[in-house]
Amino acid sequence: MDYMKPFGVDLDLSKGVMKNPATHIVRQASSMRGHYADAAALERLIAAGDPVHYEVAEQPVPDAPGQMRFGISTTLPGTVGGECFMTKGHYHAVPDTAEVYVGLRGQGYLLMKTVEGECLWEEFRPGRVIYVPPFWAHRTVNTGEEPLVSFYVYPGNAGHNYGDIEKQGFPVRVLKRGGKVEFVKTRSK
Amino acid sequence: MDYMKPFGVDLDLSKGVMKNPATHIVRQASSMRGHYADAAALERLIAAGDPVHYEVAEQPVPDAPGQMRFGISTTLPGTVGGECFMTKGHYHAVPDTAEVYVGLRGQGYLLMKTVEGECLWEEFRPGRVIYVPPFWAHRTVNTGEEPLVSFYVYPGNAGHNYGDIEKQGFPVRVLKRGGKVEFVKTRSK
User: Fold this and answer.
1) How many CA atoms lie within 13 A of A23 on its CB side?
2) I need a surface site. Which of A11, A95, B128, B137 has the fewest CB within 10 A?
3) What is the pLDDT of residue B84?
């Protein structure tokens, strides 16, 4: 039988950096249109230099159910019209698949929602393991002053479904006003 | 639909400790009979107090394919007739399932083998992510002077198959002589 070979990758656990990742995705502010309540504030941010919103460094493995994809997610600090920088958020394309996150650096939240609109969150902090059960969409929100970095693992076949979040959004927005974090419900479901 | 709820658990990433784990498995020297070449040395160790060999702290999730089991594995330092303390080692009961380890503390190796007897290893050190592909049995070996601690994640349905390792063993033994680590092949396959 022809086996896949074991391999290793080095992380700097305190800085939250993966050394020599095979893939590196960078999302700038301009890729976040439609996600923030204050569209004009986002356009001003894009015009002022289109800063990086978040980055993902990954070591790909085959897209099979028994494999495990893993990587490092970095969401930068900042606000758009008072709303904290965040990732697009997604369901898994294979919806009955979970994900494990481990906070390495920074402060924030993992927002999670069901298709029916239930929305919960867990705090990100260094050492915090967050379990995203099957069927929950998830989005990282940076409420701190430094990059929010996490290590994640999910099934190799899970895939991403961004489209449903682009249509539905999340029913909760995370704002920072005068240094204070607020969770604002935007609809009942 | 009745969804499983998200949850969080705190790790101390530098000490390698999970706070309030739901399950905590402890394996003493007496559970390691048959695994070391020097059976008499193991019996002396058992008679001298039967010290802990390794511990596993876990936060259980349902045994389903899309779920992810995770926890902390701690292998203590020491030798048995010159052979470094190690875990029993296992295949997954569902063999085509991978596992991801992250070294948090200490020094050692993850030995991996196929059913055909190919044996490879990756070094454990803080921040080192080791990918165990589907079908590879795996065993942690502590070659250092302090506890070797790792965080692991694997599919919820993977399970453990210890019996085949108890019958076959690993084709490589890890010794420490005069502070130097040696990998000794015990058979060609």
Assistant:
1) 10
2) A95
3) 98
Closest chain B residue by Cα to residue A98: B67
With tokens 């600090």, the residue in question is A77
The Cα A112–Cα B41 span in angstroms is 53
Residues of A in contact with B59 (CB under 8 A): 129, 131
Q: Measure the CA–CA gap between A130 and B153, rounded to whole angstroms.
A: 12
- Could you tell me if B86 and B48 are in contact, meaning their C-beta atoms sit under 8 angstroms apart? no
Sequence ranges of the domains in chain B: 13-185
Q: In this predicted structure, what is the pLDDT of residue A60?
A: 86
Complex-level ipTM: 0.94
Dist CA A12 CA B126 (whole Å): 8
Q: Which residue has the tokens 């929602």?
A: A113
- Using a CB-CB cut-off of 8 Å, the residues of chain A touching B8 are 122-123, 128-131
CB within 8 Å: B127 and A68: no
Give the model's pLDDT for residue B71. 97
Name the strands in the sheet holding A180-185, side by side, starting at the edge strand that comes first in the sequence: A79-80, A83-84, A172-177, A180-185
pLDDT of residue B189 exceeding 70: no
CATH architecture of the region B13-185: Sandwich (2.60)
Using 50, 70 and 90 to split pLDDT, how confident is the model at A164?
confident
How far CA A113 is from CA of A165, B23, B60, B170, in Å, comes to: 10, 28, 22, 45
Strand residues in A49-136 grouped as ranges (E)? 52-58, 68-75, 79-80, 83-84, 99-105, 108-113, 119-124, 128-132
